[in-house]
Amino acid sequence: MNFLDKMQRKYGKFAIPNLMLYIMLGQTIVLFYSLLLNSSLLNLLYFNPILIMRGQIWRLFTFVFIPNTTSPIFFLFAAFLYYSIGSALEHAWGTFKFNVYYLLGMIFNMLGLLIVQLIFYRDTVSASYFYVSMYANITIYLNLSLFLAYAVLYPEVQFLLYGILPIKVKYLAAIDVIFLAYGLISGTVGDRVLVIVSLLNFLLFFGSKLLRSRPTTTQKQFKVQQRELKQGPPIKVAFHKCSVCGKTELTDPDMEFRYCSKCNGNYEYCMDHLHNHTHIE
């Protein structure tokens, strides 16, 4: 992250505070404007390099304002969730780094779709249809990459699933990964590419941390030694004890011990008292 720190000193003043708030507000306006006025506003916003080359430059940015669902109830729930996640990430990283994370996600998703289009949908008609079919998927995978970042930083935070069931973020992240794996296996070519590119910014930010989280052999040995120190030294039991003075092989490792044949019972003595004790009848 040293590179980001240098970039922040130079360009941090251009960062947008509360970026996720503006994105969620934009999606809210687009959704309700489209529902109430039966508008084709979405057709003016989605990412399409063909139309961008014709002068519609705004499509480089406006595709993030396309909601990933047309259900108002589900959208409001998702909007509040991702606004909270974005705010938490911005608080943890700072405004500039969060802006960079989201911007990288946008760039990787655009490049991924462009590569798919250039390989599989070269004619204008099929390319336009492809971008229309994928317009909402970009925001879906962008949000999922945000959630993964949040899960790494706050794995123990609990969400109330459906407002009732408490579940930790790390378990929801596991479901998130399963969803991404499912999209990678059974999705279209576009979906598979979006799954891959949506993880690139996450790996750039967290790849080294995830690798360091795996303990090396030396680290494992150190942890074992630490546990042993906390538990204290092992308890040693003496097998020989003088019946007169109580001396054992632990208190005097060089001493020898013998049983007395004249004592009635198994009485053991050190060499100092083997021939100098009162026999037990």
From TrEMBL:
A Gene Ontology BP annotation from the UniProt entry: proteolysis
Transmembrane stretches, start-end: 20-45, 57-85, 100-121, 128-153, 159-181, 193-211
Localization of this protein: Membrane
One of the record's GO cellular component terms: membrane
Presence of the UniProt keyword Transmembrane in the record: yes
Alphabetized UniProt keyword annotations: Hydrolase, Membrane, Protease, Transmembrane, Transmembrane helix
Domain of life the protein comes from: Bacteria
GO function terms (MF aspect): peptidase activity
Keyword Transmembrane: yes
Major site of localization recorded for this protein: membrane
Membrane topology, record value: Multi-pass membrane protein
Designated name of the protein: Rhomboid family intramembrane serine protease
Source organism (scientific name): Candidatus Cellulosilyticum pullistercoris
